[in-house]
Amino acid sequence: MKEAGGAGLDVLIADDHPMIRAGIRATLMARPHWRVCAEAETGPAALRLARALNPGLAVLDYSLPGVNGLEVARQLCREMPGIGVLIYTMHADPRLLSALVAAGARGYVLKTEDDVALLAAMDAVAAGGTYVSPDVAGAPPAALAALTPREREVVRLVALGETNRNIAAQLNVSVKTVDTHRTAAMRKLGLHTAVDVTLFAVRNGIIAP
């Protein structure tokens, strides 16, 4: 949990490789008011320790034994809305990123990046923001992480064939507001037509085929 004044932060590290955990601990020395409250080697252990200690930040390997990082992230974000979850992984997979964003994780860092990137990611997630490694963020599915919840909902409804007027009625907002969200979402996703939106939504699991 955060300490009084908001400067301190308890951090849970979960990785089955001791050297990786040691590296994360060393990186955290740059933030003297943060502390590693627990370390876990498996997914079940990470869940147990997080529930007992309620850390403010969880740094998780995706390939955790027992329960993988995606499922750990999903359970922690559901049970502890205030926790920041950062995935630290070797997998540069935009599809995995999309699944983790849907689960509630706010950070995705590749283990091939340096300590500066890892610290920047931890800072961003601890502050309530997001961080995605550039090697993953450049792929179209990763752009989903940049959408606001309302933009994502507008994308879903556009993909289902709804007009701006119908979307406005469903969301109880003005047509102009819908148009603003639609334009912003399509710009972030690099899409140009409603057909593009539909294809993107199907490919990335926003709507069923």
Automatic annotation (TrEMBL):
InterPro entries per the UniProt record, alphabetical: CheY-like_superfamily, NreC/VraR/RcsB-like_REC, Sig_transdc_resp-reg_C-effctor, Sig_transdc_resp-reg_receiver, Tscrpt_reg_LuxR_C, WalR-like
Limits of the Response regulatory domain: 10-126
Pfam families, per database record: GerE, Response_reg
UniProt domain HTH luxR-type: residue ranges: 140-205
Swiss-Prot/TrEMBL keywords: DNA-binding, Phosphoprotein, Transcription, Transcription regulation
CDD domains per record: LuxR_C_like (cd06170), REC_NarL-like (cd17535)
Alphabetical list of SUPFAM superfamilies matching this protein: C-terminal effector domain of the bipartite response regulators, CheY-like
Keyword Nuclease part of the UniProt annotation: no
Species whose genome carries this gene: Shinella pollutisoli
Protein name as catalogued: Response regulator
Keyword DNA-binding: yes
Location of 4-aspartylphosphate modifications: D61
